[in-house]
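thought: fold this chain, then report.
action: predict
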Amino acid sequence: MPDLDRSLFLSRRHFLALTGGAGAAALLAACGGTSGPPTAQAPSGGNGGTKYTGPNVSVAFWNGFTGGDQAYIKKMVDDFNKATPNVKVTMNVYQWADFFQKVPAAVASGNGPDVGAMHVDDIPTNAARNIIVPIDDVAAALKLSESDFSPIVWQGGVYKGKRYGIPLDTHPLGMYYNKAVLQKAGLDPDKPPQTGDDYLAALEQLKGKGIQGHWMSPFPFTGTFQFESLLWQFGGDLFDKDVTKATFDSDAGVQAMTWLRNLVTKGYSPANVGQDADYIALKNGKNAFNWNGIWQINDLASIKTLQWGVAPIPKVGTQNAVWANSHQFVIMRQNQPDQNKQEAARYFINWISQRSLEWAKSGKIPARKSVLESAEFKALAPEAQFAKQIDYVHFPPQAPGIGDALAMVDQALNNAILGKADPAKALSAAAGQATKIVQDNQKKYGS
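observation:
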C-alpha cells in the first residue's frame, strides 16, 4: 500500500488489544509508571546538537518510513554518514505497527534506539510512559522558535510544557482529481471545484454521465480524515479543550457526517467502498475525486499515462480546515545515558532538519518556514498545492492514549457511511464511549 501511515493509524489505536491488557499494563509499569511527569532526563550540558566533535560513536535511528519515503530517508542517512565520519547512524525501519510494539520494550530493557520519528499524537503517550525525553536544549541551542514554523507544528512537539519533538514535516489531506474523467464529463480539468456548492454541482454533472465521482470510504483511511476535516470546517471539534469529553457528536459533527453520507444516498458514491478502492478507482479512471494524503504524490507520479492534479480540499463548511499530522524527531530514554551518543543524536536531528527540502520530495510539506517559502519547494508543484492549506491544518488531539478514543470516531464513521445507523445516532453512541476512554486515560496517565 502506498499509504505509509496506514499501519500506524490502525495499530496505535488498538495497542491494548494487540498486546493484551495485562501485558500492556506491565509494559507501562516497566517504562516508568502511568502517572506523574517523566523523570528520565537527557544528560545535561553539551551544545544541544549545534556540532559534534567527540569520539567515534554509533547512533541507532528507528522509524516507520516503509513507504515511498524510505528511499529518501535512507539517502539522507547515507549522506549524513559520509559528511560526519565520527558518527555512524544505523537505521532500522519497521512497519509502524511493529515500531510501536518494539520501542517500549526495547527502551525498558535498555536496548532502545537513540533517535526516533513519531507523529504528534504519539508524543504525549510516549512522554507520559517515560519512553522519550525532553529536548528543550536542542531547540534552544539551535535557536529554534515558533516563528520558524507554523504554530500548530511547533506546539505539536510539546507535552506538559516540555518539548519532546523537533518538527520534520507536515502531511495533510488534499484532493486528487483525474483530469481525463473530468474532461469526459464536460468539466474543466484545470479548475477543480473549491467550494461545497461547486463540488456537489460537479458530482451531479458526473453522475449524469454515469460516473460516481467521489467514492466515500467507510474506513479510517481516509474516511475518518474526511469527516474530521469537515467537522472542523463546520466549526466543531473532536473533544473539549482539556480532552475530557468527546464533542464530535455536536451539530457540526452531524452536519459533517450527513454531508458525507449523502454522497452515498445521492448516488455520487457506491454504497460499500472497500479499503483503498476509492484511491484505486481514481487511478483506473472510475471516479473523479479522491481526498487522500500528500504521501500518494509519488505513487501517482509513477503512472506515466495518468492525467491527474491536486488541490486543497473544498470549503464545504463555514471555514477552511483540513486534517493533517506531523513527523517529529524524538530522543529515547536510556537506562545508562552516554553523553557522546546523546550529543551525536542531537547533531543528527539538526543536520536532517536543515535538509528538509530533500525530505519534501518524498511527499511532505517541510516543517521549517524557510524551506516552505523557498523557490525550490514552490517548484515542487503537487506538494506546493498541499502547502496552501498549512495555515488551517488541524492535528489529532494531543493527550496520552488518545488513539483508543479516536477509534470510536472510526466506528461512528463506519456505521454512518454503511447505513448501519443514522449519522446523529452513530456519533452519539461513539462519543459516549470516547468520553469514557479519555476519562479513564486521565486516571491511567495522571494527566
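thought: worth noting. The chain has two domains: 6-168+333-354, 172-324+400-445.
final: C-alpha cells above.
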